[in-house]
Each structure stands twice: as C-alpha cells, then as structure tokens.
Specification:
By secondary structure, the chain is an all-alpha fold. α3 packs across α8 and α4 crosses α5. It has 12 helices and no strands. The radius of gyration is 21 Å and the shape is globular.
Length: 247
C-alpha cells in the first residue's frame, strides 16, 4: 500500500509546469498548490506596481495581499479576455488608487513641477563608473539598486506608475493606458517626462539593473502565499458557518 502511494505521488505532475489555463482551473477548484504558484509568479510585478503608487513597502505588501484575496474570491469572474497577470495588475492598481484616494494625499502636477524647479529639478547625480573590484561587486549592485529606487521614488506618482508599468514591467503603451484609464498619448507623454527626470545617463548606465528594483522574492514571496491561503481559508470557513441554519 505504501509503495503504491509513493508511486502515485511520484507520477503526479509538477504543479510548476502547469499552463496558466490549468492553474486557473485548479485554483477555481480550490487547489492551494495552484494558488501558491499563481501568487509566486505574480508577486514581483504586483508589488512593484503597488509600490509605484503607495510609495512604501509595507502598504504595497498590504495592497498585494488584498489583490490576491479579492482575485481568488472572484476568480470565477475571470473570462480570459486578457492574461491573468494583466487582470491581477488591474485589481492591484484599483486597490492602490483607492487607498491613495482615502489617504487624500494627491498633489497636482503643477505643484510638483514648481517644487522640482525650486529644488533644481529634483534630478539625482549618479556615479559615472560601475566597475568595482570583484569583492565589492555585490555591495556595488545593492548601492546601484538603492540609487535607482530613490530615483524612481522621486518621480511624481503619475509618472512613476507609467514608468514602472512600461519600462520595468514591460507593458505596452496600449496596455498601460488601459490599466490606468488614460489615453495612449498621455501615457507616452508621462513616460517621456519620467525618463527625462531619471536622466539619460541613468537610462544608459543602469537599464540592465531595472529588473533588480524593489525585490520581492525568497521568504517574502513564500510568506505572501501563506498569508493569502490563510485569508482564503478564513473566508471560506465563514461562508460555511453562515450557511448552517440555526436550530
């Protein structure tokens, strides 16, 4: 009996090899392995997107968790007209913008432009050389990433979100415009201004390092999957209890 069970276990497909359609179908059926894989595959993109709007790690993580919980509860509503990652990104954007609206902390672009001019443009100066000795390579990479993160954080929120979606996550102009509910022309203008504020030197010297911005992996990635599963279990348990008629 034990040998048969072990053989069956070995023959079970690796969930990490499932296609998106298979993962969605299994997640709809409550397969927690599928849910975990969806979370792990989308954590980085959703975290960066949320952080571009809310501006700090802790609240961005809250946005990501709320996004997953909302998405998995309403997964039956996903029709596949866009990719799952695009659908999740749209939910994350809505959640992040809603939080910002509640915070009532929006600043007009004109005021931001005045502040930038008053402070000399708000542009950061970066070192001209990124060729450290081998023992210092890791330290240099971390310093470079922090410099880039600070430069991105310094962008006005409207420009920062477009920059993250377009240049960091690789969405097209049309996809970005659709996600943000703005015109493609507006997307192009904001991206142009964002790149200008980041400066041409940054774009040339650090374009290969953008993939390392705001890392959300390792234990943080695994913990997010655990938190989402726990939240979903609690919600489902509550639904079951509420369906039991009183005596």
């Amino acid at each position: 009996m034990t040998a048969v069970s072990a053989a069956a276990k070995r023959q079970r497909p690796d969930p990490s090899t499932y296609s998106e359609a298979e993962l969605i179908a299994r997640a709809k059926a409550g397969d927690e392995d599928a849910i975990r894989i969806i979370v792990q595959r989308n954590n980085q993109r959703l975290f960066r997107t949320a952080r571009a709007i809310v501006g700090n790690d802790a609240e961005a993580e809250d946005v990501v968790q709320a996004t997953y919980v909302q998405a998995f509860i309403n997964l039956a509503a996903f029709r596949g007209s866009s990719s799952l990652s695009t659908w999740l990104t749209r939910i994350a954007l809505n959640e992040a913008f809603a939080r910002m609206q509640r915070r009532r902390d929006f600043t007009g672009l004109e005021e931001i432009d005045m502040q930038n001019k008053a402070s000399g443009g708000g542009l950061l100066h970066f070192p001209s050389s990124l060729a450290p000795a081998d023992p210092e390579a890791e330290l240099a990479r971390n310093q470079t990433r922090r410099l880039l993160e600070h430069a991105v954080d310094a962008l006005p929120s409207e420009f920062r979100t477009v920059f993250i979606l377009r240049d960091v996550e690789g969405f097209s102009t049309e996809e970005t415009a659709s996600l943000l509910n703005i015109k493609p022309e507006t997307t192009k203008t904001r991206l142009h201004r964002a790149r200008k504020m980041m400066r041409l030197s940054i774009e040339k010297q650090f374009s290969g390092a953008f993939s390392a911005l705001f890392p959300f992996d390792g234990a943080r990635c695994a913990n997010m999957a655990d938190r989402v599963i726990t939240a979903l279990r609690t919600i489902h348990a509550g639904k079951r209890d509420s369906s039991i008629p009183s005596q």
